[in-house]
Amino acid sequence: MALAYTATEMMTAAAARALKSSDACFVGIDLPSAACNLARLTHAPGIKLIYESGTIETKPNVLPLSIGDGELCETALTTVSVPEMFRYWLQGGRITVGFLGGAQIDRFANLNTIVIGDYDKPKVRLPGSGGAPEIANCCGEIFITMRQSKRSFVDKLDFITSLGHGEGGDHRARLGLKTKGPTKLITDLCVFEPDPESREMTVVSIHPGITVDQIKANTSWAVRFAPTLMETPPPSAHELEVLRDLHARTKRAHAGVT
Amino acid sequence: MSEFMSLADAVAATVADGDAVAMEGFTHLIPFAAAHEIIRQGRQRLTLVRMTPDIIYDQLIGMGCAEKLIFSWGGNPGVGSLYRFRDAVENGWPCPLALEEHAHAAMANAYAAGAAGLPFAVLRGYLGTDLPKVNPNIRTVTCPFTGETLAAVPALRPDAAIIHALKADRAGNVMIEGILGVQKEAVLAAKRALVTVEEIVEDFGPRSPNTVILPSWTVTAVAHVPGGAHPSYASGYYRRDNAFYLGWDDIARDRDGFFAWMKTNVLEKGPDAFAVQRRRLTATA
Q1: A62 and chain B in contact, CB less than 8 A
Q2: pLDDT at position B283, please?
Q3: Are residues B138 and B16 part of one domain?
Q4: CB of B185 within 8 Å of any CB in chain A?
Q5: Model-level pTM?
């Protein structure tokens, strides 16, 4: 019998599977944090999770609400200052994978988390860049996880906060970057990988029950599909159990006071 | 040497209208009590400096204390928007807010450069982003050894740094442990420093030789404010009030609701209100 699961659970499981036990991963909050901890609690027990608050090799029992919850520090191997984190660890090239999200993404996986509309007269002022520009520049490769919709998967970004593949092709290399940039984009509908030549994000795997038309209807550009499309394996019973336990513990912890 | 003062005297001694003020604390140890005192004293035209403005600057901005913000991430962590910050940027309410926007790596490096007495910070960053188009303080330098082009930003040298620490000893040295953020750099970069503390002890006692201690002669004023980081937290004393962060979303969403909350909880209260929060959160820590 097929298991019942939500689109978000499918997305989180698919994102988690992209990570290896040997990775050192720079973790963003919310969806990336859930995926990274699911990986650590299932197939990748050796993964080294690093949050920009300075916590290295942290093993939180509940998901942090912020990037610097006490839980992250108390369960870390060591905690360094924020300047040290960005200078020695991120810029120093010790992080294999950066896990990012954003408000808007384009076909080359450039991300916007700064503004919708004009910068000086914004329609919506978004939080800003945080660590993302240098995460996108300095990590060995980048995974992105976002819910897919026409509003967020746009033809042209209002602002480039962090570089994906720029204008495509060898744009990153021309800027002097040696890192790979976004190699996977995991949504609630499918998984994208960059085309080897153009670097345009291309659908390689579709989640069970999702159609090609649904993916087209939720993307503002003319989305490309790989010649051979895979079906993403659904979340396993074990993945669902671990993820649901994690969220239940987290909800209890965050509702604890006030 | 630092002087022990009441919070009101310490704020009056360190923060003047028009100052550039950095209130730091990366999620942990955010100096909320000092910010509330700044609001009560009606400081205006401040340039607020902080990597993650958080609720603390949402409150200062919403109360009209700021004319400029130097920052790198302005959201309610894990929750969503800072509505008072957005209202100032999108609608100029209660007054227009100029932005100098960076990424975290640049802000962290700029504080370190300020502490080191250097004119600017250098980093490998900002490649391919639009931030240099909107922030003329993001420039480049060429490495004299390799020819590599690197990003440069001016050092941060605020008039005042304000942080919250765990302990002060009787000599006025202050101690921080846990998530350290950029507090040490902010204090050493600033002309004046105000530190609020959870506890005053005779002496720090047994500790790691690498415990972060800011010597008395790097600090202007120390004020004893138990709970002074609430709804942020103080490691070993009380936990982060995540439910408050979730609840702020509703409080700050509209102007009237925000002002009513500030009147009841800030303008008509004093630093003792923070000790009540600490007691409540310690019980469930």
Answers
A1: no
A2: 67
A3: no
A4: yes
A5: 0.96
Q: Is A74 a catalytic residue?
A: no
B94 touches chain A (CB under 8 A): no
A121: its two tokens: 């007269």
The reply to whether residue B75 touches residue A83, judged by beta carbons under 8 angstroms, is no
B182 lies in the same domain as B137: no
Whether B128 sits inside 8 A of A125 (CB atoms) is: no
Same domain for B65 and B44: yes
CA A15 to chain CA centroid, Å, is 8
Rounded to 5 degrees, what are φ and ψ at A137? -80, -40
Give phi and psi for A181, each to the nearest 5: 75, -165
Q: Which of A25, A56, A11 is nearest to A206 (CA)?
A: A11
User: Which residues of chain A neighbour B102 with C-beta distances below 8 Å?
Assistant: 129
Whether this model's ipTM surpasses 0.85 comes out as: yes
Q: Which token pair is B83?
A: 């509505």
Q: Say how far apart CA B84 and CA B38 lie, in whole Å.
A: 17
A258 and B244 within 8 Å at the Cβ level: the answer is yes
pLDDT digits (tens, 9 = 90+) for B169-200: 999 999 999 999 999 999 999 999 999 999 99
A-B contacts (CB, under 8 Å): 202
Give the whole-angstrom CA distance, residue B169 versus residue B97.
39
Query: B198-226, pLDDT tens digit by residue?
Result: 999 999 999 999 999 999 999 999 999 99
The list of chain A residues with pLDDT below 50 reads: 1, 257-258
Residue of A132, A176, A257 lying closest to B243 (CB–CB): A257
User: Which CATH superfamily, name and number, covers A7-101+131-148+166-203+234-254?
Assistant: Glutaconate Coenzyme A-transferase (3.40.1080.10)
Give the range of the structural domain holding residue B143, as residue numbers without chain letter.
Answer: 108-154
Q: Which residues contact A84 (CB under 8 A, 6 or more apart)?
A: A54
Only one residue has tokens 């910068």, namely A119
**In total, how many domains does chain B have?**
2
- Measured CA to CA, the distance from residue A135 to residue A112 in angstroms comes to 14
